[in-house]
Automatic annotation (TrEMBL):
Transmembrane segments: none annotated. The keyword Repressor does not apply. InterPro entries: ARMT-1-like_metal-bd_sf, ARMT1, ARMT1-like_metal-bd. Keywords: Hydrolase, Manganese, Metal-binding. Belongs to the damage-control phosphatase family. Sugar phosphate phosphatase III subfamily. It holds the Pfam family ARMT1-like_dom. It comes from the Bacteria. Residues 20-355 form the Damage-control phosphatase ARMT1-like metal-binding domain. It comes from Streptomyces graminofaciens. This is Damage-control phosphatase ARMT1-like metal-binding domain-containing protein.
Amino acid sequence: MSDAPVIRGTDPHSFPHSVLAERHPALIRKVQGAFPYGPEQRRALEELLKSAVDGVVEPPDDDEWWDTWDVRRYAGRSWFDLPFLAAESCFYRRLLHAVGYFRPGPWQGVDPFRPFKLAELDTPEAAAELTALDALAEQPPREQLRALLHGSLWGNRADLGFRIQSAEETETASQLVADDTEQLTSLLLGADVLCLVADNAGRELIPDLLLIDHLLAHGLIDRAVLHLKPYPYFVSDATTADTLDAVRHLVAAEAAAGHRLWSALSDGRLALRAHPFSCAPLPYADMPDDLREEFASADLTVLKGDLNYRRLVGDRLRPPTTPFASTTAYFPGPVAALRTLKSDVIVGLAEKTEDALVKAEGRRWRTSGTHALIQVRP
Ligand SMILES: O=P(O)(O)OC[C@H]1O[C@](O)(CO)[C@@H](O)[C@@H]1O
């Protein structure tokens, strides 16, 4: 089914079009408001704003990322004509370039999204996550694991890019459209090494870290490898700096998990990775050999979030009943996806589930973030 249509934003009524035409400009405005950038950066951001709305892709000459991932070929084309995954990825690269993130100088390495990510850590929702841990300890072990998995899953709803467009945070109608929780729990209980491919910082990363801590602290796994982005990407995607912020936050909150995670990082039971491919505009099917070997050496890889899901199954409009197992057969080891639905891509649905969703909501269920899934390919 690799010839299923690639998702693009060409249709003005489509979801990708709305992301490119509305979400990206709103994000630039937010970034402009968050820092006292100098004239050069302000000019570059204004140019990007114009280009994002009605311009074309203009790769900067001094950025080799465009060559590394062969996306300079999109120069001169409308953002809306590009494959959606490439359009978004190129947009974030341009945004970082505009604020001088990669250029030697005082703004080098200053994450334009950091204020938003830090604010996430201080929300009542993040605090509630920690309070809930005490009550959880009273539950039977399998129930604890299930609750932590679901905490990590629903934490994925918390990305800032998504909330820029959908202001309301609907708690109603939340449901799993595919639920392999039992299979995932069994796989985790038999695993020594877990790879967790993180998605967002802040309110998503905290439950991810609590899950990892639980697995390590109870001896359910020996080692965890946490895959992060090497630099800011898709607004709230977690980097090493964000992970350290989250662990420091847990330590400051005097959560025992914070101290245990600190030790696990120090003694190597929790290892961090930041592979360049994590910010590539490509599906995981095209991953380089060293990353493939890394995933192959784990007993289980869990991919978090919508973007990772799109990259795992391919950013294409496949029939929703296409089996998850065959779509991910190329992945070099057991793999699981934990994702709230925030884009058109979906596979692995039962026919009656798809029918019921379409009947009740048309297409909205695909992108509203009110539905989620846990899918596993052992
Ligand atoms: O943080 P997540 O779960 O990867 O979601 C990010 C999603 O937001 C978007 O950028 C816009 O919806 C999607 O394209 C992307 O998949």
